[in-house]
Specification:
Length: 913
């Protein structure tokens, strides 16, 4: 058993002292900013933000083509006095002027680039009488460890470090060679928003199925904070970056894929030469009806700066990606692979040994400026709750399955509370129907002979020990067909989709039988979502969920056998388990934490559903979902908060209520002839659309009001409130790391208050995962003998004063048989097929015990004589809530898992009148 885990995170080393780097800094200056904004306004007369320059493409171009540029500053397109460029050495005027001129020309139509050419000549001239000149570079010391402490003791780094420091670290590491198995890997820098990536280049090759597949090592570098930690962290995560060598899609199906361009700089030798890959986006342009460079890609401007070399055109790159990844002349380009464009024989992920080797290489390259954060150690041996014993040596086969079936049936009986359960199965393949009907009695332990057949051969009924289940199976017919869509000019996409949904609702109403006082569930076999990808908004899944909810029925879907690789029996099993979950027939197993947890504790979980106009119904919505779990309370153990009626309702009723929301008829936008919605507030020149004044503040106030009201409803017994900080902090800013303080809750602009004011026995736990931004560091277990591997448990470190913990679950069964030392980047002779393996490391779930009954909290609330909480016990409880007999370890504690999945029913439909 491992007793320590190591996280791939680093912090400024206090033993090193101040960390200041002399950098060249360039500001646009007021004159040049005024000139460029004037050109922007002239090129785009419809812009509502003429003073906000669309500088993202210019920044990308400068990072790729100007030697020495490390990073670009924030908001430089809005204010010419702010730092624009950070560089190791000043970029010469004869380099900077053509880049700015080419970018300025790109703001105008392709047949009118005279403005950009004129600007380039004026910038090159050096004439003292010229009013527009390139600004002078300034030398400034930049503190790369600059931060302040929040009131709660959390480090708050300077805003510029989120982009500047990852780039600086990436270039530092790119100068070094990583060697594995005697083979060297060289890295290039890829800029990535508020971070940076290192990509091994040229890619590795893997021969499989008479084809060459390409892949690289990829390291993502980001800056983050940890609650109550006095120094910020730099996280370095490791992945496999796969490259596309063929695209099994048609051009019009390519929404947007990343392309990294490797091109030599057309300028004299400079620092960091050859260390960067240029980031572009390739996709189908529905206006021009052809493939094009999109999303501020600098690729279209590069040929203007370098007329000697041959650069790939979008259609050529799409038709023959392998040619360009191998290079044409001294120019190469790689299309980043995504599963939507076809199969790939290289598996994702790395195993712990290879992660550890890369991590050690990073640690060596960052000394002495950054030091690794301390290892985490176990805080509890109680890793799991009271689960049923696993089958194994000495155990009678089938006993555990029988016990689990009895548990499910008891939970279903409790949830139904004497009502019959009516299930409709709409199938497209006989195999799916047969699998569903065979799996149901096995899952809930219905004895043989209890089935009551019907004369029509469509209905099956089981009655056993308080459970009355009636299943009717019929062909799906047109119910599962693609939604009919239109592309009428001048009509909003959300409205057209709403009309298609209403049409499917009418079809469902014609097929639905009235419920006879029981609970209703509909299971529909539909094609995989890839079948509907060619026609936007044609997937019927969400329309069917809305339609059946109007009939009072919950819904579950199963994919047709031709659209999935998983076994039919396995899919049928999970279909029923999810149906049971929607019925509320699930509860957390008894915990094994100890006497420090109150016996009558209830759990409450909050989840914020956020849909934009790209959401499932093309309607934006923000909705708070709250779920309450009361173990051992009999019927209604799982409930949801009905905000409209201000009451707790059974979980199935919550799902149906969430699906009934409607939105007013959409307005304030226009639609192009291609069916794409264009917000009137968007700046076509490339600026980000501005939010409507006060909208975010109104959402925040309303969400916080609802949370306060919910806390009042939970005061009757000890409560554990669970919230996902990454999900909720947008509308509850008091959950941002810099705003956190131990045993305090903050709402709005008011000072934070003692959390016990919201509940005498309230505890508040925040969880956070990587959140697609590397917010929580990767990890691997290790021992004193250089062994590495996996480990499950609850872990803590001394420097967080016992309030922040890590929860790690067991490894997935898919990697259980893979050796921990599997090497994919440079396979050994014994592991030639290693690149084809899929490796996956369990993620770390960060648990912050924000509010508990600490000594100070008890004293402040007049209860100094009561025994204080041990934060580690509450973190262990949250960890154990991730486990259930029916599931592999959940990504989040069960109550939070239920709240998040309830969000699938938040499907607002636009008004059509």
């Amino acid at each position: 058993m491992y007793h320590h885990i190591r996280v791939a995170a680093y912090e400024p080393d206090p033993l090193h002292g101040p960390w200041r780097e002399e950098m060249k800094v360039l500001r646009l200056g007021e004159d040049l900013h005024a000139e460029l904004t004037g050109m922007h306004a002239e090129a785009d007369k419809n812009s509502v933000h003429p003073h906000r320059l669309p500088v993202r493409r210019l920044n990308s171009l400068l990072q790729a083509m100007a030697p020495g540029v490390i990073a670009t500053g924030r908001n430089a397109g809005t204010d010419g006095r702010l730092p624009w460029l950070y560089a190791r050495e000043a970029v010469p005027p004869d380099v900077l002027a053509p880049v700015v001129g080419a970018w300025a020309a790109g703001m105008h139509r392709e047949d009118d680039d005279s403005e950009g050419a004129d600007l380039e000549e004026r910038l090159r001239s050096g004439d003292p009488a010229e009013t527009v000149r390139l600004p002078h570079w300034e030398t400034e010391p930049v503190d790369l460890a600059e931060s302040v402490l929040s009131a709660g003791g959390t480090a708050d780094p300077a805003a510029r470090l989120y982009s500047l420091l990852p780039e600086w670290i990436a270039f530092r590491l790119a100068t070094r060679t990583f060697r594995t198995g005697g083979t060297p890997l060289h890295f290039r820098v890829e800029s990535s928003g508020d971070g940076a990536r290192l990509v091994s280049w040229p890619p590795q090759r893997y021969e499989r199925r008479r084809q060459t597949w390409y892949y690289s090592a990829c390291l993502t570098i980001t800056v983050h904070t940890v609650p109550f930690a006095p120094r910020f962290r730099v996280h370095v995560s490791t992945q496999v970056r796969r490259w596309a060598t063929r695209l099994d899609v048609r051009p019009h199906q390519l929404g947007g894929t990343t392309v990294l361009l490797d091109a030599p700089l057309p300028w004299p030798e400079g620092p960091d030469r050859g260390h960067r890959l240029m980031v572009n986006t390739l996709g189908y342009d529905r206006r021009s009806k052809e493939l094009a460079w999109r999303r501020h890609s600098p690729a279209p401007l590069v040929p203007e700066l370098d007329i000697v070399r041959n650069y790939p055109r979008p259609e050529a790159l799409f038709s023959d990606p392998e040619r360009w990844i191998n290079g044409s002349g001294d120019v190469a380009a790689g299309i980043v692979y995504h599963p939507s464009i076809g199969p790939h024989e290289v598996g994702p992920g790395l195993m712990p040994r290879e992660r550890a080797d890369l991590d050690a290489w990073v640690e060596e390259g960052l000394r002495p400026l950054l030091a690794r954060v301390p290892d985490l150690t176990r805080v509890s041996r109680s890793n799991t709750p009271a689960l049923l014993p696993r089958s194994g040596a000495g155990r009678v086969p089938g006993v555990r399955d029988a016990q689990m079936a009895l548990q499910r049936r008891a939970a279903l009986t409790r949830a139904l509370n004497g009502r019959p359960l009516e299930i409709d199965v709409f199938w497209q393949s006989p195999e799916t129907r047969a699998a569903l009907l065979a799996e149901l009695p096995k899952l809930i332990g219905l004895p043989a002979g209890q089935q009551v057949p019907s004369a029509d051969g469509e209905t099956w009924q089981w009655q056993c020990e308080g459970v009355d289940i009636r299943v009717r199976a019929r062909p799906a017919g047109p119910l599962a067909d693609a939604l009919p869509t239109t592309r009428a000019r001048g009509r909003l996409r959300a409205v057209r989709l709403a009309e298609a949904i209403e049409g499917r609702c009418g079809l469902v109403a014609d097929r639905a039988d009235p419920l006879r006082g029981g609970a209703g569930v509909v299971i529909t076999e539909i094609a995989g979502k890839e079948r509907f990808a060619a026609v936007p908004d044609s997937d019927p899944k969400h329309a069917l969920r809305i339609a059946w909810a109007r009939q009072g029925r919950l819904t579950q879907f199963v994919n047709s056998p031709d659209d999935t690789d998983s076994a039919l029996e396995h899919r049928a099993r999970w279909t029923w388990l999810d149906a049971f979950r929607q019925l509320g027939a699930i509860s957390p197993p008894a915990h094994r934490v100890g006497a420090g947890i109150p016996g009558d504790l209830q759990y409450a979980a909050l989840w914020l559903v956020r849909h934009t106009r790209k959401g499932p119904t093309r309607c934006p919505v923000h909705r708070l979902v709250a779920v309450r779990v009361r173990p051992g309370d009999g019927p209604g153990v799982i409930e949801g908060w009905d905000a409209e009626r201000a009451e707790w309702v059974p979980y199935p009723k919550l799902l149906l209520l969430l699906s009934q929301a409607r939105e007013p008829a959409a307005s304030g936008g226009k639609e192009t002839g291609t069916g794409k919605l264009v917000d009137d507030s968007a700046a076509p020149g490339g600026s980000r659309p501005a939010a409507r004044p006060g909208v975010e503040q109104d959402r925040q106030r309303e969400t916080e009001r609802q949370i306060r009201a919910l806390l009042f409803q939970l005061r009757d017994r000890p409560t554990l409130l669970l919230a996902d900080a990454g999900n909720l902090r947008q509308c509850w800013p008091g959950l941002r790391n810099g705003a956190l303080d131990r045993d305090m809750l903050g709402f709005g602009a008011e000072p934070a208050q003692r959390h016990t004011l919201y509940g005498h026995d309230l505890r508040v736990l925040l969880v956070r995962d990587a959140n697609a931004r590397g917010e929580v560091a990767e990890w691997y277990a290790h021992d004193t003998e250089d062994g590495v591997g996996f480990a499950e448990g609850v872990w803590g470190a001394a420097d967080t004063e016992g309030r922040v913990f890590a929860s790690t679950a067991s490894k997935p069964h898919t990697v259980a048989k893979l050796p921990k030392g599997l090497m994919k980047l440079v396979p050994t002779a014994q592991g030639r097929t290693a690149p084809g393996k899929t490796a996956w490391n369990p993620g770390q779930l960060e648990i912050t015990v924000l509010g508990c009954l600490s000594d100070k909290a008890l004293t402040d609330s007049g209860r100094a004589g009561d025994p204080p909480d041990r934060p580690a016990e509450w973190a262990t409880l949250a960890h154990q809530l991730r486990y259930h007999d029916d599931y592999p370890p959940l990504a989040r504690p069960l109550p939070l898992h239920l709240a998040r999945l309830a969000g699938e029913y938040v499907l607002p439909v636009a008004g059509t009148k």
